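Dear colleagues,

As part of the handover before I leave the project, I'm documenting each prediction I ran so the next person doesn't have to rerun anything. This entry is a single chain, and its sequence is reproduced below.
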Amino acid sequence: MSSRKKRDLKIYLVSAFVIYILIVLYITIFNRMPEEKRVDMELFRSYRLLINDKNYFYLYQISCNILMTIPFGILLPAFAKKFRMFLSLLLAGFLFSFLIECAQYFTGRGLFEMDDLFNNTVGAIFGFFIFSFFYRMIFHRKPQ
C-alpha cells in the first residue's frame, strides 16, 4: 500500500473514531437529563438480577454496554499501533469506560455503575479480538 493510501486510511479511521466517541458521548451523557448523582459499586449486580429474578431488562443493559464499546476495540488499534497489544487496549478500554462513568456521575446524567465499567471493558476486548482476527487474516496470511 502506498504511503498516500496509508495516510488516507489513517485519516478515515481517526475520523470514524472521533465520530464514534461523539456518538457514545451523546448516548451516555448529552441525551440525558440531569438527575441526582448516584453510584452502584456492586459488581455483577445486573447479572444477579438477570439470573435470580429473571429480569430481562438487565440482559438488554448488559448487551448494550458491551455492544457500545466493541467499535472502540476495533477502531483504536486500527489507527494506533501501540493499542495492538492486548494489555494496552485493555487499559484504554477500561479508562474510556471509567471516564464515561465519571462524566455521568459528575454531570448527574447517569449512574456510575461497576457493571457498566466491566461490560464496557468487555466490549472493548471483544472489539480487540475482532480487530486482531481480521488484521491477521489480511496482513499475516501466507502467500499461496
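Strands lie at 38-40, 111-113. The mean pLDDT is 95.

All the best with the project,
I.
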